[in-house]
Design brief:
This protein is mainly alpha-helical. The longest helix has 29 residues. Helix content is about 70%, strand content about 10%. It has 6 helices and 3 strands; from the N terminus they run ααβααββαα.
Length: about 150
């Protein structure tokens, strides 16, 4: 059982890296070179929302990267806008610029096509079971990490 557990965890890491490779391939296919795959995940996590940097950090895992650095690059390349909060000048919200929203919509369609392709190939039940299993694992790890902090 321990070996299956550890192999599953390693598989999650490999899948995340492969997902980033898929995003990179899609960016290359679109001819977009001023944003990288991790920044694209950040962009997709923002979506049509306006978030604080803390909220954004909690939404995703940005493999080996610094969220502040990526946000700065995305502002420079005009994918996101930073909006200062009126009550605290040290804090700000981020939202997609028109350029960022355009890329978000492209990836929304790409992910929809991926989901439909997976549904045809593997069936909707497979994806539902995977999501349910991952949620259970996330809850278990959250409980373990919370218990260790007490």
């Amino acid at each position: 059982m321990k070996e299956e557990y550890f192999n599953s965890v390693q598989s999650l890491e490999r899948l995340h890296r492969l997902f980033l490779d898929v995003i990179k391939a899609e960016l290359d296919h679109l001819g977009i070179f001023d944003i990288n795959n991790v920044q694209t995940v950040v962009l997709c996590n923002i979506g049509t929302n306006q978030l604080t940097i803390g909220e954004l950090t909690n939404r995703g895992y940005y493999l080996g990267s610094n969220v502040s650095y990526n946000l700065r690059k995305m502002v420079q390349n005009e994918y996101i806008l930073q909006i200062p909060t009126p009550h605290d000048r040290r804090s700000c919200h981020v939202k997609l610029s028109p350029k960022g929203l355009e890329l978000y919509k492209k990836f929304d369609r790409i992910f929809q096509n991926h989901a439909e392709g997976l549904n045809k190939k593997e069936g909707k039940e497979t994806l539902a079971m995977l999501g349910s299993s991952l949620q259970k694992l996330e809850r278990f790890w959250h409980e373990v990490s919370s218990r260790d902090k007490r």
